[in-house]
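Can't paste images in this forum, so I'm doing it all in text. The chain is below; anyone willing to post the predicted structure tokens underneath?
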Amino acid sequence: MSLEEMYPIQTLAIPSLLLEITDSPKKLSVRGTFPTHPDLKFLSVVGSRKYTSYGRQACEALIHGLRGYPVVIVSGLALGIDGIAHQAALDASLTTVAVPASGLSDSVLYPATHRMLARDILEQGGALVSEFAPDWHPRLESFPQRNRIMAGMSHAVLVVEAEYKSGTLITSKLAAEYNRDVLAIPGPIQSTTSQGPHMLIQKGAALVASSKDILEALGIQKEDVVAQQKIPLHLTIAETNVYTLLQEPIARDELVHKLKLSVSEANILLASLELKGHIVERLGKLEWK
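Text version of the structure:
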């Protein structure tokens, strides 16, 4: 089975946050599992393609510090900080959503060098999202269009590194227009990639020096997280129902009956969970791994 057969392109209901913006997309496509748990907070992480070692280390450390918290990392699958953010999220077992400036077919997914990263995102329960046709090749205007979706679907936008005249700042500008929190990491004063974050901080963006700063901006309290960790937050509502029912091993037929879905819908759901490695059948019964 090919990757496109395992993770076909489907229509995604426009997320409620994205419906709030004035230029909300008319249609979205998705591959993989778009996270829908109501307690999740979406954080867009953006930055320069020409990142520094400082920017990479800061991005990785801050995202790793969010491990175990109900945070989804959103980025654009681009070279540079985008790819670093996605990989750091995967390493920290956080759900990540990629919004490329292309269609979602394997043949056009941009950039081509990040197609393996896109596969890893899908295999670890994340999603690829686009408003473009499946075979859409990126154009110059595709990037700001994509940026508005990232800003619109997120509760906050974190700017890692950016020069004054950087496309990264388009996302932060849109975030401010959409009444989203803008966060920025300060950097060395002699670095040109610190110019953008420093300008944003001067204009009122929240200065981020630790993962705790991000959690506070997202309104996440530690005591809330302890209760939420019982259920994996990257699951869809249907997958959460399976998780709840599989607190003890259950025969497949009994589980299908309890799900109150059609037999075909239940089997598709269970097959998807098996492919993702969430459930396994042992001694004639299904159990959560």
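The chain has a mean pLDDT of 90. The first strand starts at residue 10 and ends at 12.
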